[in-house]
Amino acid sequence: MLIDILTLFPGMFEGPFNESIIKRAIERGLVTIRIHNIRDWATDRHRTVDDYPYGGGAGMVLKPDVLVAAIEAVRGDDGYVILLTPQGRVFTQQIARELAQKPHLVLVCGHYEGVDERVCQLAVDDEISIGDYVLTGGELAAMVVVDATVRLIPGVLGDQASLQEESHSSGLLEYPHYTRPAEFRGLRVPEVLLSGHHAEIARWRRRESLRRTLERRPDLLEKAPLTAEDRKLLEEIRAEKAQAAKQERQAAAQVDAGTQDTAQPQDA
Question: Are residues 180 and 134 in the same domain?
């Protein structure tokens, strides 16, 4: 895969792509990442890339002539151009999988108040946001997209099977993990993980994945591809939670009743 990144701040990318999985993928020739300074396509002596917005208002807008020239110079015949913008579709694992299938990505890092709309109309194939919050620019968003996408390229990870167990890969959050020691500060690893019974371990992990998703991201269950066994496990989990809540209410009621009894005046 070839990834071209257009940015006003090339230095921001020196650290993240020189470490860990991305670095190894580059060294093994599985991905090539090229960082381009948008100012290189400015035509005036001040290398101007932005201007005041028509109609007034705060902030500056990236100029269409400079940005379109930059995109056209690097996209080639197969470049899929993505503008990182808070107005784009929210980035997900599924989108990462889609992008991992493309041979050439061009990531455009927005900045200032935004980009001239004609850039989107003339030279952009997709617009992506990494969440509903505001960043100074698109550089950090581009790093997130690159990291999530590159690790899906075959051969980048040593153990491809681990991809299938990660949070969001199956539409659910991942199950809890444990390692040695078996007991730490009074907390023990669940016995099933020490049993060596692979079928029971797999069932426990699936159950805990469903439990964690139900508790932390129940919205994901609406879209997750659940099996009949999954739905049965969810019913059991919900029943357990309802029973636990009932017991808590009963315990609280007993405490309240005891408090009221002790508060009554004693007979003389």
Answer: no
Residue 212 near residue 175 (C-beta atoms within 8 A): yes
Q: What per-residue string of b and e applies to 23-50 under the rule 16 or more CB within 10 Å gives b?
A: eebbeeeebebebbbbeebbeeeeeebb
Both tokens of 261, joined, read 């009894």
pLDDT digits (tens, 9 = 90+) for 24-46: 999 999 999 999 999 999 999 99
The helix (H) or strand (E) run that includes residue 108 is: strand 104-109
- Is residue 12 located within the same domain as residue 118? yes
Q: How far apart are CA 210 and CA 190, in angstroms?
A: 17
Mark the ranges of the chain whose per-residue pLDDT is less than 70. 159-169, 261-268
Are the C-beta atoms of 124 and 23 separated by less than 8 Å?
no
Instruction: Look at residue 266 and tell me if it is in a domain.
Output: no
- What proportions of the chain, in percent to the nearest 5, are helix, strand and coil? 45, 15, 35
User: Do 243 and 119 belong to one domain?
Assistant: no
Q: What is the pLDDT of residues 203-256, one digit of tens each?
A: 999 999 999 999 999 999 998 999 999 999 999 999 999 999 999 999 999 888
Shared domain for 130 and 170, answered yes or no, is: no
DSSP secondary structure code for residue 57 in this structure: -
Same domain, 49 and 170: no
Which residues have CB under 8 Å from 33's CB, separation 6+?
A: 3, 5, 13, 17, 22, 26, 146
Domain CATH code at residue 246: 1.10.1270.20
